[in-house]
Amino acid sequence: YHQFVTVSNYGSYEFYLGNNPLTITDVYFTFDQLSFDPEVKARIEKQPVLEQEKEYKQLAVAYIVRHPVVFLGRTLAKEINLFWRPVALPEAQGYKMIGYRADKWYLCLGLVGAVLCLFRLKKYSFLLLFTVYYSFVVSMITVVSGARYRLPLMPAMILFVSVVAVIVLGGMEKLLKPPAQKDRKVNWVKS
Predict the structure, then answer these.
(1) What is the Cα–Cα distance from 156 to 46, expressed in whole angstroms?
(2) What is the pTM of this model?
């Protein structure tokens, strides 16, 4: 009692699992997948928790520094799987998701909104910056895809969808509005 207890959120371990030569990026993570070197894990597990965290982080960073192109390719693949691939029927049934069919349209409109925001960068730069930063960091750290990682981006995606709606409605208003009549000067001619 009256002592601090060291705990871990396993962030460094996840970082290592997502960035080592055995990392798998194309399927959901299960513990029977070998996404790490068993000898390395056995050696590290003998250390105190803080030392484990430090060791896993150092291994992941060393791997990224040695293989930056592989790291960027893997991170991009995970980002596409995490944030831009709609939930498929087997996944939806496995997680008992309701409304998974709307996910495809929601993501497509969100992506269109993100692209449109590039043309209006002054207004939407923070939203774009947040989306890019969050999706990259989460993709870099995670092992494989999982719909739960997408949740913090949902508000940003809804804003992207609303950007599309505002632009489309504004364009429709311009198309449907009758052309404005110019003020005519009436010349009175004396007869």
Answers:
(1) 42
(2) 0.63
